[in-house]
C-alpha cells in the first residue's frame, strides 16, 4: 500500500493498496474534502483541518455494499498505522461483537472514532445503526443539522446514542472528477466529517490527551 487500502480486494492481491474511487462513487472524496481540503489557496472549498493527513480506507464500492469483516480490516489498519482520529461515515444494521472489539482496540490505543448516526430518521436507541450505536467511550455518533441549526427529518437521533449534531445539509465539498471538481452533499456522513476535522485539530494541539479527554 502507499496511502491506504481497498479491503474489497482480497489480501495479497494486486489493487488492495489502492483505495481510489471509481465511476459512480465519490462519497469518500466528499468526506475527505470536508475534513481536510487545503484552504486559503483560491481553489474550490476549504476543509476543517487544512493540515490533516488523510488515510483512505475503502470497504464499500459504488453499490454502497460492504461486509463487517472488511470494515474491521480497515479499523485494524488505521490502528496499526497510527491514526489518531477515525472517521467512520458508514452504517451497518447488524450488531457485530468483532466490530465492537475492534473499536475497543482503538479505544485502548487512544483513538477517537467519529461515526455517522445514519439517515433513516429513526431513534437509534430503538433501532441501532453501527458503529455509532456501539456504546464505547471513544465512539462519537454524529447527527446532521442545517445552517439554521435545525435537525432534518432524515437524520437519526437518540438520547444516549447520538452525541451531537454538526453541519450536514447542503454542504459544498470536493467532487471526484475534473468535470465536477465541486459537489453539494447532505447527510450524517458529512456531519461526521466536520467533527473529525475539528478533532484532528484538537488532537494535534493536545497530542497527549486520551480519547475520552478529547
Would you give an account of this structure?
With 214 residues, the chain is of the alpha/beta class. Helix content is 25%, strand content 15%. The protein has helices spanning 27-36, 68-80, 97-108, 188-205, and strands at residues 5-6, 57-58, 85-88, 112-116, 139-145, 164-167, 171-174, 182-185. The strands form 3 sheets. It has a 4-stranded parallel β-sheet with strand order 3-4-5-6, sandwiched between helices. A two-stranded parallel sheet has the order 1-2. Helix 3 links the parallel strand 3 and strand 4 (112-116). Helix 1 (27-36) runs parallel beside helix 4 (188-205) and helix 2 (68-80) runs parallel beside helix 3. It is globular, with a radius of gyration of 16 Å. The two termini are 30 Å apart.
Amino acid at each position: 500500500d502507499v496511502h491506504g487500502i481497498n479491503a474489497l480486494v482480497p489480501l495479497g492481491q494486486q489493487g488492495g493498496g489502492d483505495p481510489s474511487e471509481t465511476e459512480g462513487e465519490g462519497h469518500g472524496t466528499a468526506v475527505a474534502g470536508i475534513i481536510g481540503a487545503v484552504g486559503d489557496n483560491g481553489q474550490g472549498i476549504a476543509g476543517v483541518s487544512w493540515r490533516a493527513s488523510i488515510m483512505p480506507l475503502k470497504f464499500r464500492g459504488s453499490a454502497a455494499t460492504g461486509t463487517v469483516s472488511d470494515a474491521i480490516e480497515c479499523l485494524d489498519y488505521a490502528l496499526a498505522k497510527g491514526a489518531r482520529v477515525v472517521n467512520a461515515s458508514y452504517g451497518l444494521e447488524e450488531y457485530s461483537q468483532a466490530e465492537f472489539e475492534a473499536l475497543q482496540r482503538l479505544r485502548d490505543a487512544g483513538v477517537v472514532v467519529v461515526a455517522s448516526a445514519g439517515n433513516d430518521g429513526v431513534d437509534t436507541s430503538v433501532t441501532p445503526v453501527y458503529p455509532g450505536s456501539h456504546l464505547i467511550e471513544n465512539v462519537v455518533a454524529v447527527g446532521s443539522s442545517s445552517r439554521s441549526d435545525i435537525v432534518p427529518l432524515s437524520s437519526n437521533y437518540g438520547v444516549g446514542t447520538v452525541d451531537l449534531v454538526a453541519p450536514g445539509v447542503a454542504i459544498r465539498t470536493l467532487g471526484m472528477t475534473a468535470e465536477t471538481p465541486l459537489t453539494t452533499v447532505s447527510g450524517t456522513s458529512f456531519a461526521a466529517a466536520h467533527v473529525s476535522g475539528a478533532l484532528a485539530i484538537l488532537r494535534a494541539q493536545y497530542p497527549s490527551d486520551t480519547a475520552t479527554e478529547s
